[in-house]
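Example record for the data management plan.
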Amino acid sequence: MTFQTPTRHTHSQQSLHVSKFRFTSLRLSPSWFPFPSLVQECWTDFRLSTVTGDQQYIKASAKYFAVGMAGGGGPVIVNRLDRPGRFDISTSQYVSGHSGAVLDIDWNPFDDSMMATASEDTNIKLWNIPDDWEPTDDKGNARAGKSLTESLVDLTGHSKKVTLLRFHPTANNTLLSTAADHTVKVWDVENSQAVSSFDAIDNLVHDIVWDVKGDQYAFSCKDKMVRLCDGRTGMEAASFQAHQGVKSVKIVYVNDSGKMFTCGASKQSSREIKVWDLKNLDKPLHTESIDTAAGAMIPLWDADTAVMYLCGKGDGVVRLYEYEDKEPYIFKLNDGFRSNTPGKGYCAVPKRGLDVMKHETMRILKVTNSAGVQPLNFMVPRKSDAFQDDINPPTASSTPAHGCHEWLEGSSKDPVTVSLNPADRATNGHSVVVPKKAFKTVSSLAKELDDANKRIAFLEKKLQQNNIAF
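Corresponding structural encoding:
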Protein backbone atom coordinates (compact mmCIF):
# COMPACT_ATOMS: atom_id res chain seq x y z
CA MET A 1 0.00 0.00 0.00
CA THR A 2 1.86 3.06 -1.21
CA PHE A 3 1.40 6.53 -2.62
CA GLN A 4 2.95 8.01 -5.73
CA THR A 5 4.28 11.53 -6.09
CA PRO A 6 1.25 13.77 -6.73
CA THR A 7 0.44 15.23 -10.09
CA ARG A 8 0.84 18.99 -9.94
CA HIS A 9 -2.56 20.56 -10.34
CA THR A 10 -2.66 23.86 -12.24
CA HIS A 11 -5.26 26.57 -11.59
CA SER A 12 -5.68 29.66 -13.70
CA GLN A 13 -5.20 31.92 -10.69
CA GLN A 14 -2.30 30.14 -9.01
CA SER A 15 1.13 28.75 -9.78
CA LEU A 16 1.92 25.07 -9.31
CA HIS A 17 1.45 23.72 -5.81
CA VAL A 18 3.70 20.95 -4.50
CA SER A 19 2.53 18.98 -1.47
CA LYS A 20 4.76 17.46 1.18
CA PHE A 21 2.66 14.29 0.73
CA ARG A 22 3.02 11.78 -2.04
CA PHE A 23 -0.44 10.28 -2.42
CA THR A 24 -1.78 7.72 -4.86
CA SER A 25 -4.30 4.94 -4.85
CA LEU A 26 -4.13 2.36 -2.12
CA ARG A 27 -2.48 -0.97 -2.82
CA LEU A 28 -1.13 -0.55 -6.33
CA SER A 29 0.12 -3.27 -8.62
CA PRO A 30 3.48 -2.78 -10.39
CA SER A 31 1.65 -1.23 -13.36
CA TRP A 32 0.00 1.26 -10.99
CA PHE A 33 -3.55 -0.05 -11.40
CA PRO A 34 -5.44 -0.41 -8.11
CA PHE A 35 -7.22 -3.60 -7.10
CA PRO A 36 -9.73 -4.28 -4.27
CA SER A 37 -8.85 -5.02 -0.66
CA LEU A 38 -8.09 -8.63 0.17
CA VAL A 39 -11.06 -10.61 1.46
CA GLN A 40 -9.27 -11.44 4.73
CA GLU A 41 -8.96 -7.71 5.46
CA CYS A 42 -12.70 -7.02 5.08
CA TRP A 43 -15.84 -7.56 7.15
CA THR A 44 -18.47 -9.52 5.23
CA ASP A 45 -21.77 -11.43 5.26
CA PHE A 46 -24.22 -9.02 6.85
CA ARG A 47 -27.45 -7.64 5.46
CA LEU A 48 -27.29 -3.86 5.29
CA SER A 49 -30.20 -1.67 6.21
CA THR A 50 -32.23 -0.50 3.21
CA VAL A 51 -32.89 2.98 4.60
CA THR A 52 -31.79 5.93 2.48
CA GLY A 53 -30.81 9.45 3.45
CA ASP A 54 -27.95 11.88 3.91
CA GLN A 55 -26.08 9.84 6.52
CA GLN A 56 -22.70 8.15 6.00
CA TYR A 57 -24.09 4.67 6.88
CA ILE A 58 -20.89 3.79 8.76
CA LYS A 59 -19.01 5.42 11.66
CA ALA A 60 -15.84 4.44 13.53
CA SER A 61 -14.06 5.12 16.81
CA ALA A 62 -10.40 4.27 17.39
CA LYS A 63 -11.51 0.77 18.44
CA TYR A 64 -14.81 -0.12 16.72
CA PHE A 65 -16.96 0.65 13.71
CA ALA A 66 -20.76 0.40 13.44
CA VAL A 67 -23.16 -0.13 10.54
CA GLY A 68 -26.96 -0.32 10.53
CA MET A 69 -28.43 -3.65 9.45
CA ALA A 70 -31.77 -4.82 8.09
CA GLY A 71 -34.20 -6.38 10.56
CA GLY A 72 -36.55 -5.63 13.40
CA GLY A 73 -35.41 -3.58 16.39
CA GLY A 74 -33.02 -1.41 14.40
CA PRO A 75 -30.05 -3.82 14.63
CA VAL A 76 -26.54 -2.37 14.40
CA ILE A 77 -23.42 -4.42 13.78
CA VAL A 78 -20.43 -3.30 15.87
CA ASN A 79 -17.07 -4.81 14.92
CA ARG A 80 -13.55 -4.36 16.23
CA LEU A 81 -11.17 -2.64 13.82
CA ASP A 82 -8.49 -5.28 14.47
CA ARG A 83 -10.82 -8.24 13.82
CA PRO A 84 -11.88 -8.45 10.16
CA GLY A 85 -13.94 -11.48 9.29
CA ARG A 86 -17.37 -12.93 8.59
CA PHE A 87 -20.53 -11.92 10.45
CA ASP A 88 -23.27 -14.50 11.07
CA ILE A 89 -26.69 -12.97 11.71
CA SER A 90 -27.89 -16.17 13.41
CA THR A 91 -25.13 -16.32 16.04
CA SER A 92 -23.05 -13.13 16.11
CA GLN A 93 -23.82 -10.44 18.67
CA TYR A 94 -25.16 -7.04 17.66
CA VAL A 95 -26.79 -3.96 19.19
CA SER A 96 -30.58 -3.76 19.03
CA GLY A 97 -33.02 -1.64 21.04
CA HIS A 98 -34.94 0.69 18.77
CA SER A 99 -38.43 0.02 17.45
CA GLY A 100 -37.50 1.42 14.03
CA ALA A 101 -34.52 1.35 11.67
CA VAL A 102 -31.34 3.15 12.76
CA LEU A 103 -30.64 6.11 10.44
CA ASP A 104 -27.37 7.47 11.82
CA ILE A 105 -24.62 6.60 14.29
CA ASP A 106 -21.89 8.60 15.98
CA TRP A 107 -19.12 7.65 18.42
CA ASN A 108 -18.22 9.70 21.47
CA PRO A 109 -14.79 11.24 20.67
CA PHE A 110 -13.84 10.91 24.37
CA ASP A 111 -14.93 7.29 24.83
CA ASP A 112 -14.14 4.79 22.08
CA SER A 113 -16.75 2.39 23.47
CA MET A 114 -19.73 4.78 23.59
CA MET A 115 -21.93 5.38 20.58
CA ALA A 116 -25.21 7.15 19.89
CA THR A 117 -27.86 5.87 17.49
CA ALA A 118 -30.66 7.83 15.80
CA SER A 119 -33.77 6.02 14.67
CA GLU A 120 -37.01 6.22 12.77
CA ASP A 121 -38.74 5.71 16.14
CA THR A 122 -37.87 9.40 16.96
CA ASN A 123 -35.48 8.40 19.77
CA ILE A 124 -31.74 8.73 20.33
CA LYS A 125 -30.03 6.03 22.39
CA LEU A 126 -26.58 5.95 23.98
CA TRP A 127 -24.79 2.60 24.18
CA ASN A 128 -21.66 1.31 25.88
CA ILE A 129 -19.88 -1.52 24.07
CA PRO A 130 -18.35 -4.02 26.56
CA ASP A 131 -14.59 -4.50 26.53
CA ASP A 132 -14.97 -8.18 25.60
CA TRP A 133 -17.13 -7.43 22.54
CA GLU A 134 -15.89 -9.70 19.72
CA PRO A 135 -18.35 -10.63 16.92
CA THR A 136 -15.46 -12.34 15.08
CA ASP A 137 -12.57 -14.37 16.47
CA ASP A 138 -8.87 -13.93 15.75
CA LYS A 139 -9.19 -16.22 12.71
CA GLY A 140 -11.94 -14.14 11.11
CA ASN A 141 -14.78 -16.55 11.84
CA ALA A 142 -18.16 -15.55 13.25
CA ARG A 143 -18.20 -15.76 17.02
CA ALA A 144 -21.33 -16.36 19.07
CA GLY A 145 -22.18 -13.84 21.76
CA LYS A 146 -24.96 -12.12 23.64
CA SER A 147 -26.46 -9.11 21.84
CA LEU A 148 -26.72 -5.73 23.55
CA THR A 149 -30.34 -4.65 23.97
CA GLU A 150 -30.28 -2.17 26.87
CA SER A 151 -29.13 1.39 26.27
CA LEU A 152 -27.43 3.70 28.77
CA VAL A 153 -29.49 6.80 28.02
CA ASP A 154 -32.56 7.55 25.93
CA LEU A 155 -33.00 11.06 24.54
CA THR A 156 -36.59 11.91 23.61
CA GLY A 157 -37.74 15.23 22.21
CA HIS A 158 -37.92 14.95 18.44
CA SER A 159 -41.42 14.33 17.07
CA LYS A 160 -40.32 12.62 13.83
CA LYS A 161 -37.50 10.33 12.73
CA VAL A 162 -34.02 11.44 13.83
CA THR A 163 -31.74 11.60 10.80
CA LEU A 164 -28.28 12.90 11.83
CA LEU A 165 -26.07 12.96 14.95
CA ARG A 166 -22.81 14.74 15.80
CA PHE A 167 -20.95 14.65 19.13
CA HIS A 168 -19.37 17.90 20.34
CA PRO A 169 -15.63 18.12 19.50
CA THR A 170 -14.49 19.53 22.88
CA ALA A 171 -17.32 19.30 25.47
CA ASN A 172 -17.93 15.91 27.00
CA ASN A 173 -21.35 14.24 26.69
CA THR A 174 -22.78 16.93 24.40
CA LEU A 175 -24.64 15.87 21.27
CA LEU A 176 -26.12 17.62 18.22
CA SER A 177 -29.07 16.10 16.36
CA THR A 178 -31.58 16.86 13.65
CA ALA A 179 -34.81 15.17 12.61
CA ALA A 180 -37.58 15.16 10.04
CA ASP A 181 -39.49 17.51 12.36
CA HIS A 182 -37.19 20.22 10.91
CA THR A 183 -35.46 21.00 14.21
CA VAL A 184 -31.81 20.96 15.28
CA LYS A 185 -31.21 20.22 18.96
CA VAL A 186 -28.21 20.27 21.32
CA TRP A 187 -28.38 17.69 24.11
CA ASP A 188 -26.85 17.45 27.57
CA VAL A 189 -26.44 13.68 27.59
CA GLU A 190 -25.72 13.39 31.33
CA ASN A 191 -29.03 15.04 32.20
CA SER A 192 -30.91 13.54 29.23
CA GLN A 193 -32.32 16.87 28.12
CA ALA A 194 -32.14 19.28 25.18
CA VAL A 195 -30.38 22.53 26.11
CA SER A 196 -31.16 24.42 22.88
CA SER A 197 -33.25 23.96 19.75
CA PHE A 198 -33.38 25.68 16.37
CA ASP A 199 -36.96 25.50 15.05
CA ALA A 200 -37.13 28.31 12.46
CA ILE A 201 -36.85 26.14 9.35
CA ASP A 202 -39.38 24.33 7.20
CA ASN A 203 -37.05 22.01 5.30
CA LEU A 204 -35.28 18.71 5.82
CA VAL A 205 -31.69 19.12 7.05
CA HIS A 206 -29.00 17.54 4.84
CA ASP A 207 -25.94 17.99 7.06
CA ILE A 208 -24.94 19.24 10.51
CA VAL A 209 -21.39 19.94 11.68
CA TRP A 210 -19.61 21.62 14.62
CA ASP A 211 -16.78 24.12 14.20
CA VAL A 212 -13.37 23.23 15.65
CA LYS A 213 -14.12 24.50 19.20
CA GLY A 214 -17.82 23.68 19.17
CA ASP A 215 -18.90 27.28 19.74
CA GLN A 216 -20.89 27.24 16.51
CA TYR A 217 -22.59 24.68 14.33
CA ALA A 218 -23.67 24.84 10.70
CA PHE A 219 -26.37 22.96 8.88
CA SER A 220 -27.57 22.75 5.29
CA CYS A 221 -31.19 22.35 4.23
CA LYS A 222 -33.28 21.22 1.29
CA ASP A 223 -33.99 24.91 0.56
CA LYS A 224 -30.29 25.16 -0.55
CA MET A 225 -29.41 27.42 2.40
CA VAL A 226 -26.55 26.94 4.85
CA ARG A 227 -27.18 28.39 8.32
CA LEU A 228 -24.64 29.15 11.03
CA CYS A 229 -25.93 29.03 14.61
CA ASP A 230 -24.67 29.71 18.11
CA GLY A 231 -24.17 26.29 19.67
CA ARG A 232 -25.34 27.28 23.14
CA THR A 233 -28.48 29.23 22.29
CA GLY A 234 -29.45 27.87 18.88
CA MET A 235 -29.76 31.44 17.55
CA GLU A 236 -28.98 31.93 13.85
CA ALA A 237 -25.87 34.03 13.22
CA ALA A 238 -25.71 33.97 9.41
CA SER A 239 -27.11 32.18 6.36
CA PHE A 240 -26.24 31.93 2.67
CA GLN A 241 -27.07 29.92 -0.44
CA ALA A 242 -24.09 27.69 -1.13
CA HIS A 243 -25.07 25.86 -4.33
CA GLN A 244 -27.84 26.11 -6.90
CA GLY A 245 -28.28 22.39 -7.56
CA VAL A 246 -30.74 20.10 -5.82
CA LYS A 247 -28.19 17.59 -4.47
CA SER A 248 -27.60 17.60 -0.72
CA VAL A 249 -24.92 20.01 0.52
CA LYS A 250 -22.18 18.81 2.88
CA ILE A 251 -20.18 21.18 5.09
CA VAL A 252 -16.61 21.25 6.45
CA TYR A 253 -15.15 23.85 8.84
CA VAL A 254 -11.52 24.31 7.78
CA ASN A 255 -10.01 24.14 11.28
CA ASP A 256 -9.72 27.65 12.79
CA SER A 257 -8.84 29.37 9.50
CA GLY A 258 -12.18 31.18 9.25
CA LYS A 259 -12.90 29.27 6.04
CA MET A 260 -15.55 26.70 5.14
CA PHE A 261 -15.95 24.11 2.40
CA THR A 262 -19.36 23.26 0.98
CA CYS A 263 -19.80 20.28 -1.33
CA GLY A 264 -22.88 20.32 -3.55
CA ALA A 265 -23.99 20.73 -7.15
CA SER A 266 -24.32 23.52 -9.68
CA LYS A 267 -27.52 24.45 -11.52
CA GLN A 268 -26.42 22.08 -14.29
CA SER A 269 -26.09 19.24 -11.70
CA SER A 270 -22.28 19.24 -11.84
CA ARG A 271 -20.75 18.33 -8.49
CA GLU A 272 -18.53 21.04 -7.04
CA ILE A 273 -16.62 22.29 -4.00
CA LYS A 274 -16.81 25.89 -2.86
CA VAL A 275 -14.50 27.68 -0.44
CA TRP A 276 -16.08 30.39 1.73
CA ASP A 277 -14.75 33.14 3.99
CA LEU A 278 -16.96 33.15 7.10
CA LYS A 279 -16.44 36.91 7.43
CA ASN A 280 -17.86 37.57 3.97
CA LEU A 281 -20.44 35.08 2.68
CA ASP A 282 -21.57 37.16 -0.31
CA LYS A 283 -19.65 34.98 -2.75
CA PRO A 284 -17.25 32.03 -2.58
CA LEU A 285 -13.50 32.48 -2.61
CA HIS A 286 -13.09 29.60 -5.05
CA THR A 287 -15.24 27.05 -6.89
CA GLU A 288 -13.80 23.68 -7.89
CA SER A 289 -15.77 21.61 -10.40
CA ILE A 290 -15.63 17.85 -9.81
CA ASP A 291 -17.74 15.85 -12.27
CA THR A 292 -21.34 15.16 -13.32
CA ALA A 293 -21.95 11.99 -11.29
CA ALA A 294 -25.33 11.70 -9.59
CA GLY A 295 -24.36 10.60 -6.09
CA ALA A 296 -24.06 12.91 -3.10
CA MET A 297 -20.56 13.62 -1.81
CA ILE A 298 -19.11 12.70 1.58
CA PRO A 299 -16.13 14.90 2.56
CA LEU A 300 -13.81 13.39 5.16
CA TRP A 301 -11.62 16.15 6.60
CA ASP A 302 -8.20 15.44 8.12
CA ALA A 303 -7.70 18.45 10.39
CA ASP A 304 -4.11 17.45 11.22
CA THR A 305 -2.75 17.44 7.67
CA ALA A 306 -5.35 19.79 6.07
CA VAL A 307 -6.33 17.20 3.47
CA MET A 308 -9.90 16.48 2.41
CA TYR A 309 -10.79 13.00 1.18
CA LEU A 310 -13.83 13.47 -1.05
CA CYS A 311 -15.93 10.33 -1.44
CA GLY A 312 -19.07 9.87 -3.51
CA LYS A 313 -22.09 7.72 -2.79
CA GLY A 314 -22.64 5.23 -5.56
CA ASP A 315 -19.15 5.48 -7.05
CA GLY A 316 -15.76 4.07 -6.18
CA VAL A 317 -13.62 7.20 -6.38
CA VAL A 318 -11.91 8.91 -3.43
CA ARG A 319 -10.42 12.27 -4.44
CA LEU A 320 -7.78 14.05 -2.37
CA TYR A 321 -7.53 17.83 -1.93
CA GLU A 322 -5.02 19.68 0.19
CA TYR A 323 -5.92 23.05 1.72
CA GLU A 324 -3.58 26.04 1.77
CA ASP A 325 -4.67 29.45 3.08
CA LYS A 326 -4.12 31.32 -0.18
CA GLU A 327 -5.73 31.28 -3.61
CA PRO A 328 -7.09 28.97 -4.91
CA TYR A 329 -7.13 27.35 -1.43
CA ILE A 330 -7.53 23.72 -2.52
CA PHE A 331 -5.09 21.65 -4.58
CA LYS A 332 -5.88 18.26 -6.06
CA LEU A 333 -3.41 15.53 -5.10
CA ASN A 334 -3.04 13.07 -7.98
CA ASP A 335 -6.06 11.01 -9.04
CA GLY A 336 -6.84 9.58 -5.61
CA PHE A 337 -8.23 6.07 -5.22
CA ARG A 338 -10.38 4.45 -7.90
CA SER A 339 -12.37 1.24 -7.67
CA ASN A 340 -15.08 -0.47 -9.71
CA THR A 341 -16.97 -1.33 -6.51
CA PRO A 342 -19.44 1.45 -5.67
CA GLY A 343 -19.50 2.70 -2.10
CA LYS A 344 -22.76 3.03 -0.15
CA GLY A 345 -21.05 5.02 2.62
CA TYR A 346 -17.67 6.05 4.00
CA CYS A 347 -16.10 7.12 7.29
CA ALA A 348 -12.64 7.94 8.63
CA VAL A 349 -10.97 6.13 11.53
CA PRO A 350 -9.65 8.56 14.19
CA LYS A 351 -5.90 9.07 14.05
CA ARG A 352 -5.47 7.33 17.40
CA GLY A 353 -6.53 4.11 15.67
CA LEU A 354 -3.98 4.24 12.81
CA ASP A 355 -0.70 2.37 12.39
CA VAL A 356 1.53 5.44 12.36
CA MET A 357 4.75 3.42 12.40
CA LYS A 358 3.79 2.18 8.92
CA HIS A 359 3.26 5.85 7.94
CA GLU A 360 -0.50 5.42 7.71
CA THR A 361 -2.03 8.91 7.57
CA MET A 362 -5.66 8.00 6.88
CA ARG A 363 -7.85 4.92 6.98
CA ILE A 364 -11.25 5.09 5.33
CA LEU A 365 -13.85 2.40 5.87
CA LYS A 366 -15.98 1.87 2.78
CA VAL A 367 -19.28 0.05 3.15
CA THR A 368 -20.62 -1.65 0.02
CA ASN A 369 -23.79 -3.54 -0.86
CA SER A 370 -21.98 -6.61 -2.18
CA ALA A 371 -18.47 -6.76 -0.67
CA GLY A 372 -19.06 -5.80 2.98
CA VAL A 373 -16.83 -3.21 4.63
CA GLN A 374 -13.46 -2.55 3.01
CA PRO A 375 -10.55 -0.66 4.65
CA LEU A 376 -8.73 1.87 2.47
CA ASN A 377 -5.29 2.48 3.99
CA PHE A 378 -3.52 5.64 2.84
CA MET A 379 0.21 5.49 3.53
CA VAL A 380 3.08 7.79 2.67
CA PRO A 381 6.18 5.89 1.43
CA ARG A 382 9.18 6.59 3.64
CA LYS A 383 12.41 4.58 3.74
CA SER A 384 12.88 5.21 7.44
CA ASP A 385 11.14 3.04 10.03
CA ALA A 386 11.23 5.89 12.54
CA PHE A 387 8.17 7.91 13.51
CA GLN A 388 7.47 10.69 10.98
CA ASP A 389 6.29 13.75 12.89
CA ASP A 390 5.81 15.90 9.78
CA ILE A 391 2.99 13.70 8.48
CA ASN A 392 1.70 12.73 11.93
CA PRO A 393 1.38 15.92 14.00
CA PRO A 394 -0.41 15.90 17.38
CA THR A 395 -4.04 14.93 17.03
CA ALA A 396 -7.26 15.27 19.03
CA SER A 397 -7.04 13.12 22.15
CA SER A 398 -9.68 11.20 24.06
CA THR A 399 -9.64 13.84 26.81
CA PRO A 400 -12.42 16.47 26.70
CA ALA A 401 -11.44 20.12 27.05
CA HIS A 402 -14.43 20.76 29.35
CA GLY A 403 -17.81 19.38 30.34
CA CYS A 404 -21.23 20.23 28.94
CA HIS A 405 -22.12 22.51 31.88
CA GLU A 406 -18.85 24.48 31.56
CA TRP A 407 -19.38 24.86 27.83
CA LEU A 408 -22.95 26.09 28.32
CA GLU A 409 -21.61 28.66 30.79
CA GLY A 410 -19.38 30.11 28.07
CA SER A 411 -16.16 28.09 28.21
CA SER A 412 -14.46 28.04 24.80
CA LYS A 413 -11.43 25.79 24.34
CA ASP A 414 -9.50 24.11 21.56
CA PRO A 415 -9.48 20.30 21.47
CA VAL A 416 -6.92 18.67 23.76
CA THR A 417 -4.21 17.10 21.62
CA VAL A 418 -1.93 14.12 22.06
CA SER A 419 1.27 13.00 20.33
CA LEU A 420 0.95 10.06 17.96
CA ASN A 421 4.57 9.05 18.60
CA PRO A 422 4.43 5.70 20.46
CA ALA A 423 7.54 6.66 22.42
CA ASP A 424 5.94 9.87 23.72
CA ARG A 425 2.72 8.11 24.59
CA ALA A 426 4.59 5.39 26.48
CA THR A 427 6.54 7.98 28.48
CA ASN A 428 3.91 10.62 29.13
CA GLY A 429 0.68 8.72 28.69
CA HIS A 430 -2.00 9.56 26.16
CA SER A 431 -3.26 12.63 28.00
CA VAL A 432 -4.53 13.82 31.33
CA VAL A 433 -6.91 11.22 32.71
CA VAL A 434 -10.39 12.62 33.28
CA PRO A 435 -12.95 10.51 35.17
CA LYS A 436 -15.73 9.35 32.86
CA LYS A 437 -19.38 9.72 33.68
CA ALA A 438 -20.59 6.39 35.09
CA PHE A 439 -23.85 5.86 33.19
CA LYS A 440 -26.08 3.07 34.50
CA THR A 441 -28.78 1.15 32.69
CA VAL A 442 -32.36 0.91 33.93
CA SER A 443 -31.92 -2.75 34.88
CA SER A 444 -28.77 -2.05 36.91
CA LEU A 445 -30.49 0.80 38.76
CA ALA A 446 -33.50 -1.43 39.40
CA LYS A 447 -31.24 -4.11 40.86
CA GLU A 448 -29.48 -1.56 43.09
CA LEU A 449 -32.86 -0.31 44.30
CA ASP A 450 -34.06 -3.85 44.98
CA ASP A 451 -30.88 -4.63 46.95
CA ALA A 452 -31.26 -1.39 48.92
CA ASN A 453 -34.89 -2.15 49.78
CA LYS A 454 -33.93 -5.63 50.99
CA ARG A 455 -31.19 -4.14 53.16
CA ILE A 456 -33.59 -1.57 54.62
CA ALA A 457 -36.14 -4.28 55.42
CA PHE A 458 -33.44 -6.36 57.14
CA LEU A 459 -32.27 -3.43 59.26
CA GLU A 460 -35.83 -2.49 60.22
CA LYS A 461 -36.46 -6.05 61.37
CA LYS A 462 -33.32 -5.94 63.52
CA LEU A 463 -34.44 -2.66 65.08
CA GLN A 464 -37.86 -4.11 65.89
CA GLN A 465 -36.31 -7.23 67.44
CA ASN A 466 -34.28 -5.02 69.76
CA ASN A 467 -37.23 -2.72 70.56
CA ILE A 468 -35.46 0.28 69.05
CA ALA A 469 -37.79 2.98 67.74
CA PHE A 470 -37.17 4.37 64.27
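Summary line stored alongside the record: Residues 445-470 form one domain.
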